[in-house]
Design goal:
There is one protein chain. The chain is an alpha/beta fold. It is built from 12 helices and 14 strands. It has helices at 35-47, 56-59, 120-124, 127-141, 143-168, 176-214, 234-247, 249-255, 276-279, 282-304, 321-332, 344-349; strands at 2-10, 13-19, 23-28, 66-73, 80-86, 90-95, 98-99, 112-115, 221-226, 266-271, 274-275, 309-312, 336-341, 359-363. The strands form 3 sheets. Strands 2-1-4-5-6-7 form a 6-stranded antiparallel β-sheet, with helices on one face. A 5-stranded parallel β-sheet has the order 8-12-13-3-14, with helices on both faces. It is globular. It binds adenosine-5'-triphosphate and magnesium ion (MG). Magnesium ion binds at residues 35-36, 313, 340.
C-alpha cells in the first residue's frame, strides 16, 4: 500500500506531497490539475518508465534540470522508494537506501494495475500493442521472463544485422552464423512461448469468471494466442525453428530482418467468439479492457499473495451506469485503489458515495 508520495519538478508540480489511505482514494481536480501525473509517477516506481511519455525528459518540469519522486509504502517489498532523474545523466532508482543496479530490477517491485485512456491501444491498436501489454505484465511477475526477453531482443538485433550484412553481399543461404544465432535463440524463444501460453490461460480463467459473475447474458471473453513458432517440447521447438529458418533464409536476407519468433506472435481478443478489434463498440472495448485489468489484478494477487495497487485514470468514460456500477462493486472490495475524477457528482452517479468511510477525497 502506498502511504506517501513526494514530487519535485514532476510535470506541473514544482513541489507536492500527498498522503494516501487504505481503501478508495479519489484524486479530485479540474482538467490539467495533475491527477494523471500523480498516477504516472507511481507507475514509474514499478515499471521503471511512464505509461504516457516515451522520454523521461517529458516528465521533467519544463525549465528544470532534475526531478525527484519519493514514496513510502506499507506491506510492500520496500518501505521507501525514490527515483531521481538528472538531465543528461538519466534515472536512478533508490529503494530502501540502495541504488538498484539495473533498471530492469525495478520492474515488479510494487505490484500494480493501471487503467488509463491509453488502454484503448491494447484492444484496438496494432498487434505490437498487445504483445507489449502482455510482456509488461509477465515481466512484472517473472524476472526470468524479462531476462529472457531482453536477451532475445539483443540477439535478434545482432541476427538482423547479420541478415543485412549477408544481403549486401548477396549471400542468400542459411549461413553458419545464422545457425549459431538460432541455436542461442531457440531455448529463449521456447521459454518465452511457454510463459505467454501460461499467462493467456490464467487470463482466460479469470476473464471467464469475471464475465460470468458480472453479466448473465451469455457473453464471454477470451484471448486467443497464436505463436509464430509453436511446439510442446523444447527439442521439437528447436527442430521446427531450424527448419523454418533454413527454408526462409532467402526471404529473410532479402528483407534484411527475421520473419518469425515471439515478436510475430498474435493475441486476439474475442467477445462471444467475435474478434473485438473489428466489431466492438467503444463502450464494449472499454468493458473488455476493464475486465482485462481486473483479471490482471486477480492474477497478480494469486502470484504475489498480495492485493496489487489499482490506479484508475478515467475509469467511467464510455461506460453506461450499469457497467460502471458493476466495476465499482469490484473496486470497492480492493485493498487500495486510486481513482482520478474531475467531479464528485459524477462519482456518486456511478456508485461511489464519498460519505462512505472507505472513501478518501484528495484534492489536487
Ligand atoms: N513537463 C511538463 N512541465 C510542466 N507542465 C507540464 C509538463 N507536462 C505536462 N504539464 C502540464 O501538467 C498539467 C497536468 O497534466 P495531467 O495530465 O496530470 O492533468 P489531469 O489532472 O490528469 O487532467 P485531466 O483531468 O484533463 O486528465 C497539464 O496542464 C500539462 O500541460
Ligand atoms: Mg488526466
Amino acid at each position: 500500500m502506498i502511504q506517501k508520495l513526494r514530487l519535485r519538478h514532476v510535470r506541473i508540480f514544482e513541489k507536492k506531497e500527498i498522503r494516501f489511505f487504505p481503501g478508495i482514494n479519489v484524486l479530485l481536480g479540474k482538467n490539467g490539475a495533475g491527477k494523471t501525473s500523480i498516477l504516472e509517477a507511481i507507475y514509474l516506481l514499478n515499471f521503471s518508465k511512464s505509461f504516457k511519455a516515451s522520454r523521461d525528459e517529458d516528465i521533467l518540469q519544463i525549465g528544470r534540470d532534475y526531478f525527484q519522486i519519493d514514496s513510502e509504502w506499507e506491506h510492500a517489498r520496500y518501505r521507501k522508494a525514490a527515483v531521481n532523474y538528472v538531465k543528461e545523466r538519466g534515472k536512478r532508482f533508490i529503494y530502501d537506501g540502495v541504488v538498484i543496479p539495473r533498471v530492469s530490477d525495478v520492474i515488479g517491485s510494487f505490484p500494480m494495475v493501471l487503467q488509463s485512456p491509453e488502454d484503448f491501444r491494447i484492444s484496438a491498436g496494432a498487434g505490437s500493442e498487445r504483445r507489449l501489454y502482455f510482456d509488461r505484465f509477465i515481466s512484472q511477475i517473472s524476472p526470468p521472463y524479462l531476462r529472457d526477453l531482453m536477451h532475445f531482443r539483443k540477439l535478434l538485433k545482432n541476427r538482423n544485422a547479420c541478415l543485412k550484412n549477408q544481403s549486401e553481399k548477396k549471400k542468400y543461404h542459411y549461413s553458419e552464423e545464422l545457425e549459431i544465432y538460432d541455436q542461442q535463440m531457440s531455448p529463449l524463444m521456447f521459454r518465452i512461448l511457454q510463459m505467454r501460453k501460461k499467462a493467456v490461460s490464467a487470463f482466460n480463467r479469470e476473464l471467464c469468471r469475471l464475465y460470468r459473475e458480472s453479466f448473465n447474458d451469455g457473453s464471454h471473453a477470451e484471448i486467443r494466442y497464436t505463436a509464430s513458432l509453436d511446439a510442446e517440447d523444447e527439442k521439437e521447438f528447436a527442430r521446427i525453428h531450424r527448419e523454418t529458418a533454413r527454408k526462409n533464409s532467402d526471404k529473410e536476407v532479402a528483407l534484411r530482418r527475421s520473419l518469425f519468433g515471439p515478436n510475430y506472435d498474435k493475441y486476439t481478443f474475442f467477445r462471444r467468439d467475435i474478434p473485438l478489434i473489428n466489431f466492438a463498440s467503444q463502450g464494449e472495448h472499454k468493458i473488455w479492457l476493464t475486465m482485462l485489468k481486473l483479471a490482471e489484478g486477480e492474477i497478480l494477487k494469486q502470484r504475489s499473495g498480495e492485493e496489487p495497487l489499482y490506479l484508475f485514470d478515467d475509469l467511467f468514460a464510455e461506460l453506461d451506469l450499469a457497467n460502471s456500477r458493476r466495476t465499482v462493486e469490484r473496486i470497492m472490495e480492493k485493498r487500495q485503489a486510486l481513482i482520478s475524477t474531475t467531479d464528485l457528482n459524477d462519482l456518486r452517479r456511478h456508485g461511489i458515495d464519498s460519505a462512505q468511510s472507505k472513501i478518501h477525497i484528495i484534492e489536487i
